[in-house]
Amino acid sequence: MLQSTGSAKIEPSFLQASSFNGHEANLKVTYDKAEEMVVVVKEYNKGQEGKSGPIKVNPANIDHFVVITPESAVAGQPFKLKIEAYDRFKNIIKNYNLTGTEVLLTPSGKGNITPSIISPAEFKDGVAVVEVVYDRAESFSISATPLRRERVEKVKIEEIKAPPDERPLPESKKEIMKEIRKEPPPPEEVKKEVLKDIKKEPPVEMVIKEDKVVKKETKRLEPRPPKDIGTSKLTSINNVAIIESKDKAMLVITTSHLDGDVSIKEEIVSKSGSQWLELRINPASINTNRSFRFKSRFIRDVVLEEDRAVQNGAVISLQLIPQKVLFDVAKVKNSIVVTVSKP
User: Fold this and answer.
1) Which of helix, strand or coil describes residue 270?
2) pLDDT band for position 201 (50/70/90)?
3) Is there a contact between 63 and 86 (Cβ–Cβ < 8 Å)?
4) Are 117 and 147 in contact (CB under 8 A)?
5) Are the C-beta atoms of 145 and 106 separated by less than 8 Å?
6) What span, in angstroms and rounded, lies between the C-alpha atoms of 297 and 53?
7) Cβ neighbourhood burial of 103 (10 Å; 0-12, 13-18, 19+)
8) pLDDT tens readout for residues 293-338
9) DSSP 3-state assignment of 180?
10) In angstroms, how far is the first alpha carbon of the chain from the final one?
11) Which of 96, 223, 269, 324 has the most CB atoms lying inside 10 A of its own CB?
12) Would you say 240 and 302 are in contact if contact means Cβ atoms under 8 Å apart?
């Protein structure tokens, strides 16, 4: 018979004599309580007994969180949350600050919660007490889920080794770049040339890229009515937040949804002597501030604007500080998570 000095049972709790090979028997047992205990072995219906040394049983991997909230709060004012980490055997994971990952907070309402990602360093003995802000006056609940190391949808990992102007251009941009003058003319000459072209030639479209002027003849286009794609397919960009550790930064872009109709395309571009990571999201609308500035070693400015190349699109530009980094763009539930790290 196998017994424990703890509060749970050992399984299996009975061993047949036929399991012994000579004077030894080897078997695997399970114990579902995280605590220190001693295994006691007794001969059935007899007085022989033996004990093991103390065994420390650690909790299993994270299974769920319990979020404790106040009964009421004020929109835009901070209030406290209590988050407890448990494994599937209802053991509190006291070392979650060492073994856990970031925790994503998701409200059930239509508002935004800030911060939406909690660092595992906030946990002490398996419990984190944090202050958050909710920006909408309504009844809602908060769920907490771990940001697992394996991404839900991995888009791309790319190492930036050279400035973008040293990379081969896409075919669609080569023709435009051929027309860029080697030396830009003085502003007055550009103005005269433009006025001359307006009088004698069809309308022209002026494209300015990297402080150089490109003149491209185009036909006059009639304005197109906006395409009605339905509000259910149009994702709303609601918030931008950042969490940073010693060797990486995670930018979290909160949206209303990220189903199969929403596409994300990324591209490295050069602006004003800096490298920028551009995320083109379609179909999407912007429902938050148009610019953010972070005190980060990896990302400085984040600019949100409408995508003029397509209808119902948005462009999010991230200014990258290091010249050589690794970046990862992934969908995690209703958030776009951009991870920037050292190579």
Assistant:
1) strand
2) very low
3) yes
4) yes
5) yes
6) 49
7) buried
8) 988 889 989 999 999 888 889 999 999 988 777 888 988 888 999 9
9) coil
10) 55
11) 96
12) yes
